[in-house]
Amino acid sequence: xxxxxxxxxxxxxxxxxxxxxxxxxxxxxxxxxxxxxxxxxxxxxxxxxxxxxxxxxxxxxxxxxxxxxxxxxxxxxxxxxxxxxxxxxxxxxxxxxxxxxxxxxxxxxxxxxxxxxxxxxxxxxxxxxxxxxxxxxxxxxxxxxxxxxxxxxxxxxxxxxxxxxxxxxxxxxxxxxxxxxxxxxxxxxxxxxxxxxxxxxxxxxxxxxxxxxxxxxxx
Length: 219
Prior knowledge:
Number of domains: 1
Structural class: mainly alpha
Strand content: under 5%
């Protein structure tokens, strides 16, 4: 049975044009659509947290607010990214968990700097609190979109690529191995049958007339 996120992805694909739909039905396309859903949830989470920190909470440092928002969004993204690439069980610490959080830490720095310089720009321009809030939110969202593409390329072609290629490489090897219950009349049995054929023919050939089994000659 398909999960709710899978149903959402399939419903979205049916609404797209046929050429785009065919591209998104490839392996990379499927991962992209799944990761796009992951990114939407993570972006909504980070934007809400950033809005609370720079709005009602009024955190003095917009850079710190951007880092905190991206950290919370990274936790959501990590949990959902395993679903996007169909990873089950305990994650590999060195090959999956550590690289993911290293990339996330780099994104935190980028988003924090983006929020900081957007706030500095809005302050220098003399914007009101509401306008400053909108500038920071807009710059943060734009950088989130840019880092989304970079993260997808890294996750699909580097982070999760080794396990996927190893699984696909082992499948042909397993299917090509001969089964223990092979047909005795197969490739191993054919040489024996071929060697036995001349022997059966010799029993019914002309030499059988002079053999002792043919009985005494008639008078």
